[in-house]
Amino acid sequence: MLPCALNGAARCCMERSASGRAFSTVRRFVLGIETSCDETGAAVLDDTGAILGESLHSQKQTHLDAGGIIPPVAQQLHRENISRVVQEALDRSGIEPSELTAVATTVKPGLALSLGIGLDFSRKFVRLHEKPFIPIHHMEAHALTVRMLHPVDFPFLVLLVSGGHSLLALAKGIDEFLLLGQTLDAAAGDTLDKIARRLSLRNHPECSSLSGGQAIELLAKEGDRLAFHFKSPMGQLYDCNFSFAGLRNQVTLAISKKEREEGVEKGQLLSCVKDIAAALQHTVASHIAKRTHRAILFCKSKGLLPQHNPTLVVSGGVASNEYIRQTLKIVTDATGLHLLCPPSKFCTDNGVMIAWNGIERLKQGKGIMSHSEEVNYEPKHYFRS
Ligand code: KG4
Ligand code: ZN
Hints:
The protein is built from 13 helices and twelve strands. By secondary structure, it is of the alpha/beta class. α7 (about 190-200) packs across α8.
């Protein structure tokens, strides 16, 4: 903890109270940097959560064209873009590096080669400008983004569904999470991405620039979900874990069968892609909703959620999906929980969520390091159960 260093870079400004009397407030500013997967993101926030400047470079199209994320390619793209993205966020914010209170950067979990670029850049930056450094856990950042937008008190239940994770946890504090369930194999987003690729959705005129999950959601809108039946995973297992590998297998078998029937070659589109998308999306939504329902019942039975306004927060890229949100709303309405999902742009990876996590840590004086301390990244790092 560096209280002196933290106070050193605050900006003092005069504001008026409700009674009209002038008083001075100290504003603090955090630069957040995200490079854990395939988005190079940076943002500058003040301690009220106001976004002063942000910039995001997405590698999505490159990885779609390559048929998946190739880590050295992701690393090279982060390397090429990080300086520009950080400079853009700073320029847009009007904040000089000298005025920053701290720099917060994702150090876990993620792709080692991608994390390394953000961390190397940040290390050099904080040493050059002699700023405190706040290492950030990417999933904690997803879980806490909602508090930048709504006054949500701890504890709350959080469902995180992204390309790399599917988990349910009780958020008890900014760095205290009780893991209730996680995926036993693949993540929800990864499964949607791989099935979208298997269906060659990149060759669909409306889907060429969409992530797998986005493509499935778009096509599902016009599909008949009853045209295919995929079994919901883990029906006999009474816990809060997830599993998507078996579902992927079922869908792949159905696709192969249809391809044989229609005489469709590799790279061509099946006539029934919309129906497959609708049935797949429904099964994913139903699996997520069932495990979330179980987690809510568990928390209620153990008195883990507050009586007043118990809340389910949903975030991560897959949480952008409207169908999944609506399915979860049925669960929260039935159990008396309040459902909160950040808007889509804050569900997928970005620099804002990292800067906000830095602000939360700054306010509580947790996990703040000096610019000269050694920090390493940890590609695989999950919440403890
Ligand atoms: O959180 P995120 O941006 O990156 C990770 O930390 O993984 O999530 C990306 C994932 C991808 O798998 C993508 O297909 C999925 O989120 N996704 C969606 C939607 N938008 C993005 N899945 C379903 N429906 C969507 N609308
Ligand atoms: Zn993420």
